[in-house]
Amino acid sequence: xxxxxxxxxxxxxxxxxxxxxxxxxxxxxxxxxxxxxxxxxxxxxxxxxxxxxxxxxxxxxxxxxxxxxxxxxxxxxxxxxxxxxxxxxxxxxxxxxxxxxxxxxxxxxxxxxxxxxxxxxxxxxxxxxxxxxx
Length: 134
Hints:
Blueprint: H1 33-53, H2 60-89, H3 96-101, H4 105-119, H5 121-133
């Protein structure tokens, strides 16, 4: 059954100066996992830029955890998307619900490396080089 798209007009067209606040979330738009990941990855940059440019030294302690969490969550979402898409492209059976339940970046990275090494010799050599760094 196809989900019905619901449009929220709270900040939509016709509301003057708030038109630009209409964000696509849930069934109100069509962002994919990488779009969500990009948002989480850009947030630390935006927040640290805000702190630095506005001399908000007192807010460093307040925002350090949201900054770190956003970066970490962006990496997690990116790895999940890469893992699921790579397995799909390679014709490997992978349980999307199981992957989405993993929150360990190390486990997601190891699973991604595993798929890469099993399916593409070029990725095998690249991942072996990156493993030497750690």
